[in-house]
Amino acid sequence: MEFDSLVLAAATADLSDEPAARPHADAVEFRMDLAADPLAALDDYDGDLPILATNRDPTEGGEAEGTERERLDVLEAASAHDAVEAIDVELSSLRDSPGATLASAARDRGVRVVASLHDFEGTPPESRLDDLLAAAADHGDVGKAAVTATDPGDALAVLSATHTATARGDRVATMAMGEAGRHTRAVAPLYGSKIGYAPVDPGEATAPGQYDLATLATLVERLGGR
Ligand SMILES: O=C1C[C@@](O)(C(=O)O)C[C@@H](O)[C@@H]1O
After folding, report:
1. Alpha carbon 204 to chain centroid distance?
2. Among 96, 8, 16, 94, residue whose Cα is nearest residue 52
3. Which CATH number covers residue 178?
4. CB 3.0-4.6 Å disulfide test: which of 54, 146, 151, 201 passes with 88?
5. Ligand 1 centroid – CA 82 distance (Å)
6. Rounded to the nearest 10 degrees, how much is the dihedral formed by the CA atoms of 155, 157, 163, 166?
7. What EC number(s) does the entry state (predicted)?
8. Residue 207 near ligand 1, beta carbon < 6 Å
9. Is 116's C-beta closer than 6 angstroms to any atom of ligand 1?
């Protein structure tokens, strides 16, 4: 997973979704924090799609339990699996150890790091978004921002910040969560966003406003973002 072009990720807590995802997705985002026994599921995985492993912190919308170290240890164990080609680590964790140590250990194994930040309340002002994306791209192979749009101006700020970051040479992934931001999931790839997330089953969305995978794949392809 090089993230040189769009990676369409089937977001799921259940790796048995992989065969259904295969016709549309480039990867599976495995939401370990939402799975009952994620490391056992990885041991059993025999799908074709590479995995982006995420063990999301509750402060950023996830359900991982335990201490920060325990949460990141699970991610580190995941990164040792052959199928795991990338891990998602929150920017706030990457600024210090143990997150920074995890990232360099993963990179030594050839595993890419997505440095992420999430805002479930709103969209920061565009200049702040620019700074956050620059910091995230600096700490990861891809810098990712998922924020919440409550009006079209928020969605526009996300697209504009995506364009600015890409024009600067940063590899970023962006999406505006929520109804007002939904279209950004289809359009942001045209401005340079390198990851799209969608559930196979629309009833199993991992974030507000997601399209189902088949729909997102069609929209992105029709728009020429892939
Ligand atoms: O961070 C992200 C992006 C996301 O929140 C979205 O809005 O599609 C979905 C999550 O599964 C993923 O980890």
Report:
1. 16
2. 8
3. 3.20.20.70
4. 54
5. 23
6. -100
7. 4.2.1.10
8. yes
9. yes
26 C-beta closer than 6 A to ligand 1: no
Concerning whether 81 is annotated as a catalytic residue, the answer is no
Domain count, the chain: 1
pTM for this entry: 0.97
Indicate whether residue 133 lines ligand 1 (CB < 6 A). Answer: no
List the domain range (segments joined by +) for residue 60.
7-223
Relative to the CA of 116, which ligand 1 atom is closest?
A: 1
Per-residue pLDDT of the chain (226 residues; tens, 9 = 90+): 999 999 999 999 999 999 999 999 999 999 999 999 999 999 999 999 999 999 999 999 999 999 999 999 999 999 999 999 999 999 999 999 999 999 999 999 999 999 999 999 999 999 999 999 999 999 999 999 999 999 999 999 999 999 999 999 999 999 999 999 999 999 999 999 999 999 999 999 999 999 999 999 999 999 998 8
In residues, how long is the chain?
226
